[in-house]
């Protein structure tokens, strides 16, 4: 590119367009809020940069009309104006959260039980926002990413770790005992008390923060002696339960609706975990983030309605 042409100023095109629309330098100056000398100077600079006369200005006449070269520039000016309008609209949409990327953290159980329905509802309202998902077993790590501005939102289990977080509760997720379908416990209706089965081998989640710890949740540190295996993969735990290796203690959201060979029984006198969504309290929610929270609330409510009757421990 000619170095001189790199000095083209977008205002030159705006001024040329105004002259072509109004038919004179004085009228263009009035429409733009410039002085006539400023308009004349910008046209002269544009002519110098392109090396062509772009306006016909006859002596003694106040009118100004584009030359063939000027009409070529006007076509480009119109294209440039349309591009700028699109850019302004895109920037406005981005600032209002209607486009761009929404970064969301999740863990496996909520990813399977809620996330498909959440995304289905969200993408209908925000089709131009891409959701970038990050899955980590421990929501404490996800909250650290929110704190470090690497995530906009994350699914969590209450209580949260300490920090400057705002949050919304979504659903009560009861703990269940998953056993082989033909086991003795599997054939008994109603809630199960682990106190009645002190010799039952148990499998559950691996080391996570205490909000996820089965023995802490159940208020029975002594259950650690019954735990024969830990894994943070729901599929592993469910398949081992189906094989009869041990009974799995899991939240209901961890269940695979179509899995055969297992029975899930509610645990007696065990409070459910509270699943929610959190964000940094010092960062305002974008429209997309607020829309994602609404979609999560709706999906969680529907999940509770579907599963509440099945896993009520009374």
From TrEMBL:
CDD domains: PBP2_LTTR_substrate. Residues 8-65 form the HTH lysR-type domain. It holds the Pfam family LysR_substrate. Belongs to the LysR transcriptional regulatory family. It comes from the Bacteria. It comes from Mycobacterium yunnanensis. Keywords: DNA-binding, Transcription, Transcription regulation. This is LysR family transcriptional regulator. The keyword DNA repair does not apply. One of its GO terms (cellular component) is cytosol. PROSITE patterns: HTH_LYSR. GO terms for molecular function: DNA binding; DNA-binding transcription factor activity.
